Amino acid sequence: MATAALTTLALARSGATLHITLNRPEQRNAMSLVMVAELRAVLAEAERDGQTRALVLRGAGSHFCAGGDIKDMAAARGRPAVDGIDPIAQVSRAFGALCVAFAATPLAVVAVLEGTVMGGGFGLACVADVAIASDTVSFRLPETSLGLVPAQIAPFLVERLGYSEAKRLAVCGATLGASEALAIRLVHEVHGADTLDTALARVLDDILRCAPGAIAATKALLAQARFAPSATLVAEAAAVFSRAVQGPEGVEGTTAFIQKRPAAWAPL
Q1: Most exposed of 8, 44, 126, 239 (fewest Cβ within 10 Å)?
Q2: Average confidence (pLDDT) over 234-238
Q3: In the listed set 207, 222, 238, which residue is the last one of a domain according to the structure?
Q4: How far is CA 87 from CA 50, 99, 148, 179, in A?
């Protein structure tokens, strides 16, 4: 998707890092179906372009994302089912598929979280490889208090926090500030507004010092490890390791270590 065609996102490139900003600040970056489609398209292009190694997700203004756009839900409620397809379920499925796509990407994903984080934004925060929060952040999970279900968020909450903590948050319709989010490891770091960008730069520098292929293979192996007993992964892990050792990144990385120089992919 050409950058000029985007209506809900703003993109900026810095070397191998693509900064993706949810850009509907007047709506606290509420996630419309258009935004979902644009995020999917930008992700797919970044995975194909051969130059992007890290993605940064952020919200314009003072909020990350206030959840799904109510207008989309209202429009879906007014449409009849076609060929047995429930239009509300179809909207919900789009948000879930977006989170699955970002969870499965071989690229490194960093979320910078400020202000309100709800709905699909909450899901993206959960699937990010690194989540950095401002001390202003407020995670909200109000669905059960409204007679609703956090349906698409629930699996990602369980993956991030474990069953017990996810259940507590959902049953209580929780609101979490920065300190509690850090304590339960919903986020990995919390910073003040004046140091947030410095922290992001440090995290990106760490990521870019790692080989992109090794990151992709590691993410894929860790994803398997969530659901498979460790004994069943011994052979697969050995094969992954062997490919890495004998591949160009493994040769370059170990040679650079011996020669006491940065690897070819590392920032200068």
Answers
A1: 239
A2: 95
A3: 207
A4: 36, 19, 16, 38
